[in-house]
């Protein structure tokens, strides 16, 4: 902790109180602490968390949030489409805080605030002073992609924190000659792997960055190898789960890549990184790359620049979504803050600091309603079209009035209410035996999350983790099916009757105007039909 942050702010002692006296409160010292480098960074981190908490309940539950919550009811060392940590986080949130949107998203808000703090700390360790640290933290706070991540229960909310903390530990291990910090690097990296498998790209980037620079001497120490062993040991249970289940995540990725991810040319992929970070703040990240590659003061940390190039090239090569590189921006913002601070100091023009910060704040305010549910929904529809946000897509699917980020927060409770109404119209004897078959994991998770007050049974579904959970002995005599292709249903049932249609105005197009079917006269049992119904998406 810096000396200026640790300066004593005098408060009355017990002896003062006993004598009926009190020392004057040192408001000047308190002000200096608040305006210190770390004080500014802490304030921005707190503002970030508070912002996400205030926005957490504005719209509704996001598709993946419902799914992660249900995965938390089926804790395992792996899932078809994700690593296991997010399910555990969902479980802890629900047990400690309940099922509200605030509860599900609270830990994401905390992680986002922590990421802002780590961004400032990286700038500090790279030699930055108050302006560099504050600028780095501000850029992390206002980056549209980080605003999006932090307002949802998602693996992506925690990923920048894991990447940034690993980078910070690596820098400190090298800067202070404290190789035992590689043990902590390994522990954080292992948890990062249990959060999201893309941590493998980050780890490879750091490894190659060290190999390609003078810091390869770190490999002469047993500490870095021990750190790698710790990361592998923490990750091992997920690897064993994958092997035991036939490597379903690899199959999922092979299906999802051509079926869902929007193809992006390499130059477009690179250019769209600026949209995610905030086009006005993107030069700060670019300055970070330049600083890490070419600045004499950053010679020890050049491995971070090569790490970024490795991650970027890997995501382009494997056709990852454009936001998969975003966690590295936290590191680049830290380096960029140092670069700009040094440039302004050499220029001797302090007014340039305000000229850098003001446009970033202004553009961040303009972008915030595109990343957070700040506006009323009709206002969000107008604003997203006015800003042409729907022109930038990460998946191959038709969007409606709202971009997927917002649209996937509408319609789920309406789906459950409609399915419950269909069930209630069945003869009483069939109501008791009726099974709900959903076509997609979000629909099934909505039934599981919201269905209890309606008396609905847990849904069955053959997509992603639900596929591995199987039909669980469900009866196939009377099935309420929705979100699933009628032709596919025709392979399993002899009688299919459409009885209702689910309409949700602001939901994604593939989640509205959904036919609801009553299926009878099964041609085969669910166990045999399960491979026919399966889909990974």
Q: Which features does this protein show?
A:
2 domains, 61% helix, globular, single chain, disordered N terminus
Fold and architecture overview:
- This protein has 537 residues and is mainly alpha-helical.
- 61% of the residues lie in helices and 5% in strands.
Question: Can you describe this structure in just a few lines?
Answer:
The protein is mainly alpha-helical. It is built from 27 helices and 5 strands. α4 packs parallel to α8, α5 packs across α24 (441-450) and α6 crosses α7 (101-125).
Give the helix/strand layout.
Blueprint: H1 3-6, H2 14-18, H3 27-34, H4 37-55, H5 63-71, H6 85-97, H7 101-125, H8 130-142, H9 144-150, H10 155-175, H11 181-195, H12 199-211, H13 222-244, H14 248-259, H15 266-277, H16 282-294, H17 302-317, H18 329-347, H19 351-371, H20 377-386, H21 404-407, H22 412-424, H23 428-431, E1 435-438, H24 441-450, E2 460-461, H25 465-469, E3 479-482, H26 486-490, E4 493-502, E5 514-522, H27 526-533
Parallel strand pairs: 1-2, 1-3
Antiparallel strand pairs: 3-5, 4-5
Helix pairs in contact: 4-7, 4-8, 5-6, 5-24, 6-7, 7-8, 7-9, 7-10, 7-18, 8-18, 8-19, 9-10, 9-19, 10-11, 11-13, 12-17, 16-17, 16-18, 22-24
